[in-house]
Amino acid sequence: MGNTQVKGSNYAIAIVVACIAFYAVPVGLVGNQAGLFTTPVMEQFGWSQTEATLYMSIQPWVAAIFTPIAGKVLNKCNPRWVLTLTSLAFGLSSLACAWFTEPWMWHCYGVIYGISAAFFMYIAVPTMVNRWFVKHNGFVIGFCGAFISILAAIMSPVIQTWISSMGWQQARIIISVACTVISVVLTFALLRPSPESMGLKPFGYDPNATEAAAADPSKKPGCTPAEARKSPALYMLMLVAGFFVISASFVQQLSRYCSTMPELGAAVGALAVSIAMVGGIVGKFGLGWICDRFGSRTAGVTAGALGAIGVLICFFAGGNVTMFYVGVALFGVGYSALSTVPPMLCSDAFGQKSFTDIYSMVATALNVFSGFSALIYAQIFDITGSYNGAFWMIIIFYVLIVIMSLFIVPMGRRLWKK
């Protein structure tokens, strides 16, 4: 028993590397660099911003359609093959963008990106981590998510240099080839369906737990998707995830906001984005630890409170650049909860019995909200001529996150904790 437990614990580390490969590498190396390619593509082909960026809205909406299917496939099929193939599809479609000359081609990329993201974006990491880890799940999920911000922060200036010196096509080829090779090779080499499939035990395995529950996921505690759909807790969790993703997308508006404020300026906006990313990295580690130590409710309340306080500081900072940066850092901690708190709330509220199927419903809602986020901010600015309404909207969202985080877990647990 002891020897098996050691092997299981050791191989869980390989699963973390695989999760980083199929999740953090595509998103951090390619997905989060999309804005760097927008201007050079528009200038070369004379496209409007809508033509050049429509695929960014197509992607989450397509992902929303395919996420329920992805959840069922990951449950029934070997995730090693599924996630290797989705990594390959995403990498090759990103590579093909280097030769695209029409907007509809980028729209097709958005469709392929959306289908691939349905598998690797929100549900695959918590699914694999919950299978391979009994302890420290929140920290591990946060650790995987932090690599997105780390990769984005490191590679953004590098990729911008490549675009300036070699052109956007060559830069696209380099990052796409690197993404494809790293994600496909490591996912195929390291990912395995479960500890049981290798005759191992998950990290933190408790020998006092029933062998039946350890060997048969259907016997793990939790409720069914049908039971979850009857509970308001599920719909509150969908709203929490949606509010997190809309609020998180405001980081893409920081540069634009600062450029509209004479007392701040574009230079402040550029540094503010970097500070938000650093806050996001710290937040993913910190909130993951809070999930493990104090529970997902506490993590949700902490993220919502820090996010609201951070946005309030930004809004009332005026020309005080130092205070603005403090607010941005706290906002970064708040929005970092997107990849950690919703899956942990789902796990704590509804258990492990049908986690993937239930969280796929939450991820579907998350993708729908994500598709509308950029449009919401554009409409607020176009109608009012400022971002004031956006600030108050985000503050309200974070306050609602705090309130709903207090109720989701106890309401969900009443379905199966007798």
TrEMBL record:
<feature type="transmembrane region" description="Helical">
    <location>
        <begin position="324"/>
        <end position="346"/>
    </location>
</feature>
<feature type="transmembrane region" description="Helical">
    <location>
        <begin position="107"/>
        <end position="125"/>
    </location>
</feature>
<dbReference type="InterPro" id="IPR050327">
    <property type="entry name" value="Proton-linked_MCT"/>
</dbReference>
<feature type="transmembrane region" description="Helical">
    <location>
        <begin position="81"/>
        <end position="101"/>
    </location>
</feature>
<dbReference type="Pfam" id="PF07690">
    <property type="entry name" value="MFS_1"/>
</dbReference>
<feature type="transmembrane region" description="Helical">
    <location>
        <begin position="54"/>
        <end position="74"/>
    </location>
</feature>
<feature type="transmembrane region" description="Helical">
    <location>
        <begin position="171"/>
        <end position="191"/>
    </location>
</feature>
<feature type="domain" description="Major facilitator superfamily (MFS) profile">
    <location>
        <begin position="12"/>
        <end position="413"/>
    </location>
</feature>
<feature type="transmembrane region" description="Helical">
    <location>
        <begin position="137"/>
        <end position="159"/>
    </location>
</feature>
<dbReference type="InterPro" id="IPR036259">
    <property type="entry name" value="MFS_trans_sf"/>
</dbReference>
<keyword id="KW-0472">Membrane</keyword>
<feature type="transmembrane region" description="Helical">
    <location>
        <begin position="233"/>
        <end position="252"/>
    </location>
</feature>
<dbReference type="GO" id="GO:0022857">
    <property type="term" value="F:transmembrane transporter activity"/>
</dbReference>
<feature type="transmembrane region" description="Helical">
    <location>
        <begin position="264"/>
        <end position="287"/>
    </location>
</feature>
<feature type="transmembrane region" description="Helical">
    <location>
        <begin position="358"/>
        <end position="378"/>
    </location>
</feature>
<keyword id="KW-1133">Transmembrane helix</keyword>
<feature type="transmembrane region" description="Helical">
    <location>
        <begin position="299"/>
        <end position="318"/>
    </location>
</feature>
<feature type="transmembrane region" description="Helical">
    <location>
        <begin position="390"/>
        <end position="409"/>
    </location>
</feature>
<dbReference type="GO" id="GO:0005886">
    <property type="term" value="C:plasma membrane"/>
</dbReference>
<dbReference type="InterPro" id="IPR011701">
    <property type="entry name" value="MFS"/>
</dbReference>
<dbReference type="InterPro" id="IPR020846">
    <property type="entry name" value="MFS_dom"/>
</dbReference>
<keyword id="KW-0812">Transmembrane</keyword>
<protein>
    <submittedName>
        <fullName>MFS transporter</fullName>
    </submittedName>
</protein>
<feature type="transmembrane region" description="Helical">
    <location>
        <begin position="12"/>
        <end position="34"/>
    </location>
</feature>
